[in-house]
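Quick one, probably user error.
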């Protein structure tokens, strides 16, 4: 049979194992028969019988071009165009903000220079210029304020808005303040005021004029206080914890915290200062002469309210003019006094001296309570028994007040006693005035009176009479010199007095109820405060350690742990250091009774570093941990206390630290988690930390 007409069929070749391609992530791939260019990439999902290659959207597909979706192309182009415009517009906005910011900074520098020049007209002018620059900057900032909706970054934008709102109120305060002081500009050392006072007037004349003008100033204080509260309200929204500790090597968080604290303190001063300002004419004897018992507390021999009571003076104040009436040594009062009040046990146990013979308290040791008002209630009641009556209150001062004033007015001479200055001398490595006062206060020891009450002196150190004679003449010389200063010195004098008040080197106890309330509100009454939160007050008493507090320093470390359930445990470490050698006169072993006031109901876990300790007790609505230790010259002592607070915290931890009068500014380090704060406690401080 002829097979030529039968189609020849070649036997099928055995195909290799099918290959698969993954098209999930390659939507433009396809398979074209007969394609000579085979992809080297092996497929895994679809059988690849004849090979594959990539086809672009515009490539010939069997003679037909695959079209691009016009809607998709339009969307892409629109997005790109929007992003370009967005970047350009925001760049221009930030550039404009930068330019306005530089202008504002330049205006602020001019305002600072105007204040330094003490030209009130120039200050008013520069406030206007700076306010104008500030308004332009704020308007530019509003253009970028929409960014507050952006996660993370938006919180910083919101902070900027709060800061600018606070600035607006700040400028309003500045304008009110300038208008308020204009009539008295010359009296506070500024030129350009509207008053007609002569530049030759003394400091006393200026103070007298200002005090008489207080009724006219008070309404303005209300306005300033209200606006200050608005500033504080805005700034309270800023959380320093969001900011880095340092940026480009410069402190950021600490400076921000300092600035916010200053605003809080300033607002509080304005608010609490108004009642005191309202009472000032009465307290300064504008309506009738006032008589005050001034006591001198030696802070170099530290006692609970600021120092050992070494001397006193009776002083009249008439129309803001001070005049000493009488002054003497505290021992002269004790010579007339018959002790009848039971002494605290630590005084009996460690001070010894006269308490070997009697358990009753002498006048010189009656400032045992850390609350100055409580101590003075007892003291004024008892001194009436030795003839000090008819006073309107007590003013306590320490040696630091004298140093602060002398730093401004310079050396003063006291007839019969020599010159006094703040020059540091080698004999004690301290100001010369301190050295001389300590020489008069305690040459070889205290005067010892006959315990039988005969009024006779059993022992008296050399020159013991001088220490009671120096007080009156020295105070009179300093006051006369200070009030006679020219107008250029008045601002610095006011600053020195204000600093001494805030740092508790001057304390007041007044018999008038409104007056006492005013000094308590302003924080110059030495009062142990109530507080809703954690609280700390460390109170030390030198029980016969000479003048060791001239050299002894103190550092406090607080380690705070907030547990998962919100309960709080604290480790408090108090480090005492005396770097100087014993000299047998100023520096000696310091027998110290320490009292640590914490929130009422706190639980003591442990206390170490004390040679003797009392059981925890309650006083002034606080729980107290107390005990005794000795600090030796060139020595270090540590007291470590662990305790648990009686409450829990959730979102915020708050702490009030109250400074003991008479101390300088001990270093406090507070740690909570990653947060660490350091401060030198020159006055009472509140600390707030976000949890």
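Nope, works fine. Designed sequence:
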């Amino acid at each position: 049979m002829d097979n030529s007409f039968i189609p020849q069929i070649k036997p099928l070749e055995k195909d290799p194992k099918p290959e698969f391609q993954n098209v999930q992530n390659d939507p433009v791939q396809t398979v074209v028969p007969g394609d000579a260019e085979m992809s080297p990439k092996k497929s895994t999902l679809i059988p690849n019988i004849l090979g594959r290659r990539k086809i672009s959207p515009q490539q010939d597909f069997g003679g037909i071009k695959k079209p691009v979706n016009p809607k998709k192309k339009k969307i892409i182009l629109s997005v790109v165009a929007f992003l370009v415009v967005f970047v350009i517009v925001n760049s221009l906005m930030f550039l404009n903000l930068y330019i306005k910011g530089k202008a504002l900074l330049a205006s602020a520098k001019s305002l600072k220079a105007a204040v330094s020049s003490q030209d009130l007209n120039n200050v008013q002018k520069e406030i206007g210029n700076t306010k104008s620059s500030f308004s332009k900057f704020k308007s530019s900032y509003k253009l970028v304020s929409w960014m507050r909706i952006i996660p993370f970054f938006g919180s910083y934008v919101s902070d900027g808005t709060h800061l600018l709102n606070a600035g607006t109120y700040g400028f309003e305060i500045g304008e009110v303040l300038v208008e308020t002081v204009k009539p008295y500009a010359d009296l506070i050392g500024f030129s350009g005021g509207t008053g007609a006072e002569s530049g030759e007037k003394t400091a006393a004349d200026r103070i007298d004029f200002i005090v008489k003008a207080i009724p006219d100033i008070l309404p303005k204080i209300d306005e300033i206080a209200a606006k200050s509260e608005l500033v504080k309200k805005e700034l309270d929204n800023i959380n320093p914890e969001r900011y880095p500790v340092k940026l480009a090597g410069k402190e950021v968080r600490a400076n921000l915290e300092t600035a916010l604290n200053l605003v809080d303190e300033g607002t509080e001063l304005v608010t609490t200062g108004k009642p005191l300002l309202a009472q000032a004419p009465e307290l300064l004897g504008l309506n009738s002469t006032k008589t005050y018992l001034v006591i001198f507390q030696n802070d170099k021999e530290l006692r609970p309210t600021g120092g050992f009571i070494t001397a006193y003076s009776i002083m009249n104040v008439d129309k803001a003019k001070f005049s000493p009436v009488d002054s003497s040594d505290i021992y002269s009062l004790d010579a007339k006094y018959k002790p009848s009040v039971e002494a605290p046990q630590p005084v009996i146990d460690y001070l010894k001296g006269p308490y070997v013979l009697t358990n009753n308290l002498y006048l010189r040791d009656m400032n045992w309570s850390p609350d100055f008002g409580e101590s003075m209630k007892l003291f004024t009641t008892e001194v009436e028994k030795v003839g000090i009556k008819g006073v309107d209150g007590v003013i306590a001062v320490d040696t630091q007040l004298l140093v602060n004033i002398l730093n401004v007015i310079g050396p003063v001479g006291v007839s019969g006693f020599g010159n006094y200055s703040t020059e540091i001398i080698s004999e004690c490595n301290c100001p010369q005035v301190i050295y001389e006062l300590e020489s008069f206060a305690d040459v070889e020891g205290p005067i010892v009176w006959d315990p039988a009450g005969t009024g006779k002196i059993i022992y008296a150190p050399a020159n013991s009479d001088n220490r009671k004679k120096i007080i009156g003449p020295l105070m009179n010389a300093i006051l006369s010199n200070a009030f006679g200063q020219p107008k250029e010195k008045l601002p610095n004098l006011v600053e020195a007095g204000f600093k001494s008040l805030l740092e508790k080197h001057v304390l007041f106890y007044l018999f008038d109820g409104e007056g006492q309330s005013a000094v308590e509100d302003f924080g110059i009454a030495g009062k142990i405060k109530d507080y809703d939160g954690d609280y700390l007050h460390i109170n030390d008493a030198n029980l016969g350690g000479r003048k060791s507090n001239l050299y002894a320093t103190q550092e406090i470390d607080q380690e705070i742990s907030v547990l998962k359930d919100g309960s709080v445990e604290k480790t408090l470490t108090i480090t005492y250091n005396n770097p100087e050698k014993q000299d047998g006169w100023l520096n000696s072993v310091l027998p110290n009774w320490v009292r640590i006031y914490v929130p009422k109901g706190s639980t003591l876990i442990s206390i170490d570093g004390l040679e003797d300790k009392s059981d925890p007790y309650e006083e002034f609505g606080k729980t107290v941990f107390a005990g005794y230790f000795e600090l030796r010259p060139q020595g270090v002592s540590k007291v470590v206390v662990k305790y648990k607070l009686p409450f829990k915290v959730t979102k915020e931890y708050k702490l009030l630290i109250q400074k003991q009068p008479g101390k300088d500014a001990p270093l406090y380090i507070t740690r909570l988690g990653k947060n660490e704060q350091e401060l030198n406690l020159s006055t009472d401080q509140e600390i707030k930390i976000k949890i």
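Residues 18-47 have pLDDT under 50 and may be disordered.
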